Amino acid sequence: MATSGDCGVFAGVSVSDSHVDRSSRLCGLAGEAGPTIWLQNSRAFISERLVTWGAMDSTLHDSIGRSPSEIANKTQRWNGKADAYFSADVETDGPIPGPFSILSFALVYAGSFDGRHFQRPPNYEQMLYRELKPISENFEPEALRINGLDRARLCLEGESPEKAMTEACRWVNATAGTAQPVLVAYPLSFDWSWLYWYFIRFSAAGSPFAYSRCFDIKTALAVKASIPISDAGRSQIDFSLRPRHPHTHHAVDDAIAQAEIFANVFEWEGVSGRTR
Questions:
Q1: Domain 34-45+53-62+81-267, CATH among 3.30.420.10, 3.30.300.330, 3.40.309.10, 1.20.120.450
Q2: What per-residue string of b and e applies to 158-189 under the rule 16 or more CB within 10 Å gives b?
Q3: Which of 2, 107, 122, 236 shows its CA 20 to 30 Å from the CA of 10?
């Protein structure tokens, strides 16, 4: 039955109601509950400090167990290319792309790393934000409640996915310059699955992140804090690594907040005395 949130089928994508479980719970939209890492794992952050500038620790560079000469040789073979990071946030009307739609997304330039030095941007004003026309009639009311977007309005006024994703790809590449664009998210799995699908499906220029240039903040935190992935949710992160910018479920706010967490985790030296 049509509701005020429904709109016509777009771009030839159509899924019948019989294939959609409208009672299913969204994954990754409502946040993760739980006590803080400080209480759950005493090794995670006690007596640790943030550092102003520092490369990612040796674990993330797969240099544990290598001799100094091996590490030096690997550094000498480095091709000189830098990463340019883009914090991404998507707001959707359901759990997966295709049957459901991106309603809005934001990409925020989040810094660069040349293999030796990480550089935060002076601010987070380099960004791209788009609100999109839905691509199917399917939606979950819980998703709309969380993001607060007017789906009926977007059916009429939203930008076409073809235009939005093509412009987003070109903006990312132009902003990155000679660096390699890398998508950053927390957790990566939700935002990457949506944006990669949309870039491949709709962008005339393809994906600016190729098929695998991505960085999961949740995994980086788990490695640096020596904790399980299950203890590395956003709601459990220590106050010293949390962002100043609020998390509001507006794509721009959430992408900026995520970029701040990313920089804090990237610069953090991690726990001492890690064993494997």
A1: 3.30.420.10
A2: beebeebbbbbbebbeebbeebebbbbbbbbe
A3: 107
